[in-house]
Amino acid sequence: GAVVSQHPSWVICKSGTSVKIECRSLDFQATTMFWYRQFPKQSLMLMATSNEGSKATYEQGVEKDKFLINHASLTLSTLTVTSAHPEDSSFYICSASPTSIYEQFFGPGTRLTVL
Amino acid sequence: AQKITQTQPGMFVQEKEAVTLDCTYDTSDPSYGLFWYKQPSSGEMIFLIYQGSYDQQNATEGRYSLNFQKARKSANLVISASQLGDSAMYFCAMSGVADSGGYQKVTFGIGTKLQVIP
Fold it and tell me: What chain B residue is nearest to A47 in terms of C-alpha separation?
């Protein structure tokens, strides 16, 4: 149980285009979903926290208009990187929690490369 | 503000031996949680163990145990009987209330790369 999927696993796109990443909790309802970003050989940095049906809470320094987060249902959250640039290339990981912060289940991650 | 410090960029351990990965933390919250995650080269984050700040006993999960010393604000991970498959990045993390207030967040350390030698 407690499986979280992400789609796509990897994506290559041209600079200036938008990319959508999906995060799904497959066998539980996720009250809260989290989006992280991880640069090579670095730690996970929380980008935003989203609760179903409400606006996401973004961490300081994360551009809301660039990283659009939608948590439309209890099993799906999407992250859209708008007008992607090479510096947005990174590993994006989502996690989902059925109850509280103390129980986070991570997706396998999405590797984004912007040319 | 909550902060996690992992001072060992890399560690080597002989197969079948035990290894301790260090983690210290800082927070002003009385209630918090401490986690350890494993990240193999494939990238997925694998939950290993959790310790609540009010838990009296150290957490254990199979070969993993968390040496929780509250006064020293340390939460070291001990892996017993290391296996080749334990080679990975290990992240210490802490949950608590965000600086901006109102919601819980998890803060990760920079990680320790563990290599198990045959």
Answer: B105
